[in-house]
Design goal:
Among the domains are: 51 residues; 121 residues, no CATH class. 56% of the residues lie in helices and 3% in strands. The protein has 23 helices and 4 strands. Strand 3 and strand 4 form a beta hairpin. Helix 4 runs antiparallel to helix 17 and helix 15 packs across helix 17.
């Protein structure tokens, strides 16, 4: 046997022994990646990832950028000034409120459509993660334009620099309204933004004291909104410019000082890594999280961090251990079965009934997570959706089942391994149709 052949054979053998990262992913592995990084094994993405190994597949998804369709024009309308709104007649006020509600519905329908249609599933998952981390609500803010601006800011930073994202959110006009910092003045401090900034946005509960909340809130005094341009400004007369101490000795005066002090706390990186980890993996690994946090705190690179989390063995061992959110269930079904023609209004209604209203989380802690999505009523709605999906597959098999009944890609639909079919099937066989219907009505359809 030629020496060169032996060397090449041994090299390939060693690579195989080092792990599966060198080999093309199986349909099962690609399914798991797309269930967590997106909303399910979308046919177009399955085809793109078919011959890629683990590292290549993750890089492909990380590099895909959201290319959204033109947004409803109303979100770019000029916001009436406070003076203009005060001068409204009763009829004008009603008309403005009606227009705002219509624009809100248009924004929600637009965003849902983009999530379904875009192949940038990982970028979209991170957008949703940050929406649920830095919560704001249309119901409280009452300005679709400001919520859309916040969405654009999150989209810009979702896979970028966390330190820049944190600073942007602290100064975001929608956030300043939502957490009442427009009313935070030197004469009458308001602690809402300061408290949530420490507890929910950066450090996590138990990693600060009440005195830190007071100092943080004082540093945020005077940070409000320009009444004409609706951009954040600092009103010097309302700002407490005295030296404040936070975290046992760090001196701060302003919002910028506060954010810098937060980022200097080791627990910040640990907390944010945990938040992202929990979004993609069901079980925490404190030692691994701590190790990732050490690197993350050096550059705050979200994209690099996410790549490491998705490349971890913990991620690849975690198949079928998490519950789909209502958005993942509804939008994922529409993505997977592209012949499914459910109006956006209907999908938004289903999601709302299951507890997820886009741009309107229930409170500052955001939407539920994991098992908290499920209760008796919501489970009934989920099962009704599954039954509707099964009926749609039966009535339009040629369109909805074709991508999965060829090349054994049917296995990519279920979060858990499927039992072997009782008989061989071709692309349009009744056995494949029955198996598809069984998949979408099984309890495992709720898992990812």
């Amino acid at each position: 046997m030629p020496k060169q052949f032996v060397i090449k054979f041994l090299s390939l053998l060693v690579l195989g022994m080092l792990g599966s990262n060198s080999w093309a992913l199986s349909v099962e592995d690609n399914k798991h990646l797309l269930l967590r990084a997106g909303f399910g094994a979308k046919p177009s993405l399955l085809n793109e990832l078919e011959n890629l190994n683990r590292t290549q597949a993750i890089k492909y998804l990380l590099d895909e950028k959201s290319q959204f369709a033109k947004v409803p024009s109303c979100v770019n309308n000029k916001i009436p000034t406070r003076k203009m709104r005060k001068a409204y007649s009763k009829d004008q006020k009603k008309a403005a409120q009606k227009a705002n509600r219509q624009c809100a519905r248009s924004l929600k329908a637009w965003y849902l459509a983009q999530l379904i249609e875009s192949d940038a599933v990982l970028a979209n998952q991170m957008n949703l993660l940050w929406h649920n981390h830095f919560t704001s609500s249309l119901k409280k803010v009452k300005s679709v334009q400001l919520i859309y601006r916040q969405h654009q800011t999150i989209k810009q930073h979702a896979l970028g620099d966390f330190s820049a994202l944190l600073m942007a959110m602290v100064k975001d006009p929608a956030m300043l309204i939502y957490l009442d910092n427009v009313n935070n003045t030197k004469a009458k401090p308001n602690e809402n933004l300061g408290r949530e900034l420490l507890e929910l946005f950066s450090l996590g509960e138990g990693n600060y004291g009440e005195a830190d909340i007071v100092s943080a809130s004082k540093a945020l005094t005077g940070l409000g909104i320009d009444p004409v341009k609706y951009q954040s400004i600092v009103r010097k007369k309302r700002h407490d410019n005295s030296v404040k101490q936070i975290f046992d000795g760090t001196k701060i005066r302003s919002a910028d000082d506060l954010v810098a002090a937060i980022l200097a706390q080791p627990q910040t990186a640990n907390y944010i890594v945990t938040v992202i980890w929990q979004h993609f993996i069901s079980q925490e690994d404190p030692a691994q999280i701590q190790q990732l946090a050490k690197t993350f705190s050096k550059d705050w690179n979200i994209k690099a961090l996410l790549g490491k989390i998705l490349n971890s063995e913990q991620f690849w061992r975690d198949q079928g251990q998490m519950f789909k959110s209502p958005l993942e269930l509804v939008a994922g079904s529409a993505q997977l079965f592209q012949g499914l023609k459910i109006p956006n209004k209907r999908m938004l209604g289903l999601m709302n009934q299951m507890g997820q209203n886009l741009f309107d989380p229930p409170n500052v802690k955001g939407w539920p997570k994991g098992k908290d999505w499920l209760d008796e009523n919501k489970l009934v709605i989920r099962m009704n959706l599954s039954n509707q999906l099964a009926r749609a597959i039966s009535s339009n098999m040629a369109v909805m089942g074709a991508p999965y009944c060829t090349g054994n890609k049917i296995t990519a639909l279920s979060a858990l391994p499927l039992p072997p079919p009782s008989e061989s099937n071709n692309a349009m066989s009744s056995s494949c149709q029955k198996q598809l219907a069984k998949i979408v009505t099984a309890p495992s359809w709720q898992l990812k």
